[in-house]
Amino acid sequence: MTATIALTGAAGRVGSLVRPVLAAAGYRVILLDIARPELELTSRETFVAASVLDRSTLERVLPGCDLVVHLAGYPQERPWADIAELNINGTQVLLEAARSSGARRVLLASSIHAVGMLRVSDVRGVLEPTPHPDCYYGVTKAAMELLGRVYGDRLGMVVVSARLGTVLSEPCDRRSLETWLSPGDLVRMMTAVLALKQPGGHVIWGISHNSRAPMSLVAGQAIGYHPIDDAERFAEALGSPPPQPEDALLGAGFADGSLPVGVDW
After folding, report:
1. In Å, what is the CA distance from 138 to each residue of 109, 110, 163?
2. Are 118 and 242 spatial neighbours (Cβ–Cβ below 8 Å)?
């Protein structure tokens, strides 16, 4: 039987990247966003205009979904009141709506910025680095992971928080040769969460199988996520840059002081 996936933030950049891959894999997809996606809907897609803060609409739409993938939220820094409302409260509303609707598997789009103040050397070989956010955006992603633990460990759902790296069709610079997550591997991650049966909360790295990555893939492998793409095949086209130094901050511009905290970038 074909699985049904609900995708919040479906009109955003990441949602737009994965939609063709999901379609090719044969999934039925419910696209949730306040804006209609630009790409024409396929026969397996249904669009529902809704905010993640609209619990009543979510509870109407989510019953029967095999997986909820939560991409909605501000994707970069904002003033605290704005970003906390959408990114933190929106995540709690989404999780509660999924729980009450019987949609027991959720993949949350956390971010590398939840640990952005750590350096490359701090995460090398570490299974799950403790959150060290680099800005308000990173704080909201750390809070997302904690909410995922509550709904997974305490309330019996299957919740995976993936610390997404650079989600693009291909890496674009030296840093992304380490942090890249291909759209294909993101869908492989979704497929892994669909197959999870044991309730609980998990935190994994949302990256591809990049040769240069200092991040451990063990936590992802433990839930069945086995990425196959490697950013290294793009290295020559990017000028074959050397790896980032061991003291490079994971959050890059979010972390090094070049971008202010709490300001709309």
Report:
1. 12, 9, 10
2. no
Q: What are 6's strand-pairing partners? A: 30, 68
Q: What is the pLDDT of residues 84-120, one digit of tens each?
A: 999 999 999 999 999 999 999 999 999 999 999 999 9
State how far the Cα of 238 lies from the Cα of 194, in Å rounded to an integer.
35
Spell out the domain ranges in the chain: 4-254
What angle do the packed helices 13-25 and 183-195 form, to 10 degrees? 70
If one counts every other C-beta atom within 10 angstroms of the C-beta of residue 116, the result is: 24
- Per-chain mean pLDDT for the chain: 96
Q: Which residues, 6 or more positions from 87, have their beta carbon under 8 angstroms from its beta carbon?
A: 73, 74, 137, 140, 141, 143, 144
For the chain, how many residues are written?
A: 265
pTM: 0.97
DSSP-derived pairing of the beta strands 158-164 and 45-49: unpaired
Q: Spell out the SS3 assignment of 86-145.
A: HHHHHHHHHHHHHHHHCCCEEEEEEEHHHHCCCEHHHHCCCCCCCCCCCCHHHHHHHHHH
User: Average of pLDDT values for 12-22?
Assistant: 96
Helix (H) / strand (E) containing 204: strand 200-206
Asked whether the beta carbons of 20 and 26 are under 8 A apart, the reply is no
What's the rounded Cα separation, in Å, for the pair 189 and 206?
8
Q: CATH number of 4-254: 3.30.450.40, 3.40.50.920, 4.10.320.10, 3.40.50.720?
A: 3.40.50.720
Alpha helices, H only, 196-247: 218-222
Inform me whether the pLDDT recorded for 1 exceeds 90. no
pLDDT computed for residue 86 by the predictor: 98
154 DSSP 8-state letter: I
